[in-house]
Amino acid sequence: MQEPVADAERWQDILDFERDWWKVAVPKERAVRARFGLSPARYYQLLNRLIDRPEALEYDPMLVQRLRRLREVRRSKRFARRLGLEG
Q1: Cα-atom radius of gyration of the chain, to the nearest Å?
Q2: How far apart are CA 66 and CA 22, in angstroms?
Q3: C-alpha 34 chain-centroid distance
Q4: Which of 31-68 are b and which e, b meaning 16 or more Cβ less than 10 Å from the residue's Cβ?
Q5: What is the pLDDT of residue 84?
Q6: What percent of the chain has pLDDT over 90?
Q7: Displacement of CA 36 from its chain's centroid (Å)
Q8: Nearest 5°: CA angle at 19, between 13 and 25?
Q9: Residue 23: strand, helix, or coil
Q10: pLDDT band, very low/low/confident/very high, at 24 (cuts 50, 70, 90)
Q11: Cα(32)–Cα(62) distance, integer angstroms
């Protein structure tokens, strides 16, 4: 099933938001709902698919690489916990 992050404006808006969300005076989850009309879980699903797209990397390489690194750190920690290797 193809993901509906179809138009360039929408995925660029998501990347722009992710780069600057911390400047907003409201919690991120509330800002996501207000700006995109999405639940936080759905937003993060879209974001994780988006950062794997080559055009996202071309649009904002520093942000996309940082988000990929953070995702990989979270995955590594999660797997380590599952294997009992952490703590």
Answers
A1: 14
A2: 15
A3: 17
A4: bbeeeeeeeeeebeebbeebbeeeebeebbeebbeebe
A5: 81
A6: 68
A7: 13
A8: 95
A9: helix
A10: confident
A11: 22
